[in-house]
């Protein structure tokens, strides 16, 4: 059974940093592209970042480019999201999600339960 | 970025057929996918690449379309289908979602 378990969320002040983690199990982690998706309270879904199987390629929307960094540790079956210069509009539940095995399979086949990040003074 | 437009809400009775639409601001080939999100839960993949049923999803769900116009159909609708349905495109580097269609079962 595919499992994705996020951690690291919490309350953080504007301008500060936070690092999210996602522990994956039930599949061969190194074979899959991985991603983060967020959802602001009572709002829709927003893609945040994608990383290739080896970690050599990363993709971001303009809203987080230069502030957020996605990374992975295939030996630990873990995905990370380093978030810097946080803004109030980054307040959301952050989901870890699994893509397919190539860049053309970038739908979100599995999702974690999410971790809430609140940016407020 | 590719903007995906969905109608905000629909209400249907159990046993009926419902079609949820998603229109893309530019062509996305067949790279449109559909998700179901129930209150308090994470989204769940229903359909990938326009018409492919995800693993474990009931055959009551189906998808169609290509280019800019796509449809998710539920037939017949059941009470448990109460949820918000999102479309998502992956044709372009910037992945985008529709704003969601909230489905109410009368």
Short account of what is shown:
By secondary structure, chain A is an all-beta fold. Chain A has strands at 3-7, 10-12, 18-25, 34-39, 45-51, 58-59, 68-73, 78-83, 92-98, 110-111, 115-119.
Helices, strands, pairings?
The complex is a heterodimer of chains A (121) and B (106).
Chain A: E1 3-7, E2 10-12, E3 18-25, E4 34-39, E5 45-51, E6 58-59, E7 68-73, E8 78-83, E9 92-98, E10 110-111, E11 115-119
Parallel strand pairs in A: 2-11
Antiparallel strand pairs in A: 1-3, 3-8, 4-5, 4-9, 5-6, 7-8, 9-10, 9-11
Chain B: E1 4-5, E2 9-12, E3 18-24, E4 32-37, E5 44-48, E6 52-53, E7 61-66, E8 69-74, E9 83-89, E10 96-97, E11 101-105
Parallel strand pairs in B: 2-11
Antiparallel strand pairs in B: 1-3, 3-8, 4-5, 4-9, 5-6, 7-8, 9-10, 9-11
Explain the overall architecture:
The complex is a heterodimer of chains A (121) and B (106). Chain A has 121 residues and is mainly β. Chain A has strands at 3-7, 10-12, 18-25, 34-39, 45-51, 58-59, 68-73, 78-83, 92-98, 110-111, 115-119. In chain A, strands 2, 4, 5, 6, 9, 10 and 11 form a 7-stranded mixed beta sheet that branches. A 4-stranded antiparallel beta sheet of chain A has the order 1-3-8-7, with no helix packed on it. Chain A is globular and about 40 Å long. The termini of chain A are far apart. By secondary structure, chain B is mainly beta. Chain B has no helices and 11 strands. Chain B has strands at residues 4-5, 9-12, 18-24, 32-37, 44-48, 52-53, 61-66, 69-74, 83-89, 96-97, 101-105. The radius of gyration of chain B is 13 Å and the shape is globular. Chain B starts with a strand and ends with a strand.
């Amino acid at each position: 059974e595919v499992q994705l378990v996020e951690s690291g969320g919490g309350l953080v002040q504007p301008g500060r940093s936070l690092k999210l983690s996602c522990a994956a199990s039930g599949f061969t982690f190194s074979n899959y592209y991985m991603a983060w998706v967020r959802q602001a309270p009572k709002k829709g879904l927003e893609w945040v970042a994608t990383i290739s199987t080896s970690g050599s390629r990363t993709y971001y929307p303009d809203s987080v480019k230069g502030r957020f960094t996605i990374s992975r540790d295939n030996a630990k079956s873990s995905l990370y999201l380093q978030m810097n210069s946080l803004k109030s509009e980054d307040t959301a539940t952050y989901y870890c999600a699994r893509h397919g095995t190539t860049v053309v399979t970038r739908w979100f086949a599995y999702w974690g339960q999410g971790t809430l990040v609140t940016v407020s003074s | 970025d590719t903007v995906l437009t969905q109608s905000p809400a629909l209400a249907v009775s159990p046993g009926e057929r419902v079609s949820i639409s998603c229109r893309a601001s530019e062509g996305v080939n067949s790279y449109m996918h559909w998700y179901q999100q129930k209150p308090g839960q994470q989204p769940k993949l229903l359909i990938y690449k326009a018409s492919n049923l995800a693993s474990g999803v009931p055959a009551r769900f189906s998808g169609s379309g290509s280019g800019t116009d796509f449809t998710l159909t539920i037939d017949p609708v059941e009470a448990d289908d109460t949820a918000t349905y999102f479309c998502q495109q992956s044709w372009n580097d910037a992945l985008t979602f529709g704003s969601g269609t909230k489905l109410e079962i009368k």
